[in-house]
Amino acid sequence: MPKIIDHDKRRREIVDVAKRLMLEGGFEAATMRSIAAEAGFANGALKHYFPGKDSIIAATFESVLAEMDPEGALDNLDVPEGADPAQVLRDRLRQTMPLTDYAISAGRVLLVLWDHAASNPELAKIYRDFLQRWQSSTVSLLKYAQKGRAQSTDEELDALALEIISITIGANVVNLMHPKGEQVATYHQIIDNIIKRTQG
Predict the structure, then answer these.
(1) What's the superkingdom here (predicted)?
(2) Integer Cα distance of 188 and 114 in angstroms
(3) Residues 6+ apart with CB under 8 A from 194
């Protein structure tokens, strides 16, 4: 009986290998040959799952962005009835800030891919769309966090949302020099400060 191959699982495994190679040796380390060898494939076998390196890189980029939003919070603003608005915002900020070893590693891979994305229209669009969703979601969360309080203007909320996104991206950059999470306590303090600002 022919062996049934889970192609989606194989694609995820290939993407995981690409991420690991980039984390260890940078973008140039993730060649088709090295990915195939690390994933246990013969040369050329990767084309059964991805037509070329660009498609592997695009899938890797999307995977890393998904890891920055592991619970799909950017597309799901539903909150439990009666939930504390400040706690909802705190929980969502913790999901996107690099506070765990896993999130720190994902952020490092994302930074490796940035330079390539700048010259690749497909990757650039993927990231722009992600940033747009992130901005919109953060504005909605900030509005919810101010529930029952004086509301900021739309311009103020847009500016604060962009500040939060910029801080998170900056934290990923800082982690390049602090890969063991040495700054995580500071990131928690930053989140607390943001909460205080929304509470007036």
Answers:
(1) Bacteria
(2) 25
(3) 89, 93, 160, 164
How does pLDDT run across 68-113, given as a tens digit for each residue?
876 666 666 666 677 888 888 898 899 889 999 989 999 999 999 9
From the list 183, 182, 75, the residue with the least C-alpha distance to 136 is 75
Residues in the chain predicted with pLDDT less than 50, given as ranges, are: 1
b/e sequence 106-120, b meaning 16+ C-beta within 10 Å: bbbbbebbbeebeeb
- 164 close to 93: Cβ distance less than 8 angstroms: yes
How many CB atoms are closer than 10 A to CB 85?
Answer: 20
Q: Which two tokens stand for residue 113?
A: 């891919």
Tokens of 79: 């909150």
- Other beta carbons within 10 angstroms of residue 49's beta carbon come to 20
> Can you tell me the distance from the alpha carbon of 190 to that of 200, in angstroms, rounded to the nearest whole number?
16
- Tokens 């996104």 belong to residue: 165
Are 110 and 116 spatial neighbours (Cβ–Cβ below 8 Å)?
A: no
Q: Determine the residue type at 19.
A: K
**What are the tokens at 61?**
């980029």
* 8-state DSSP, 81: T
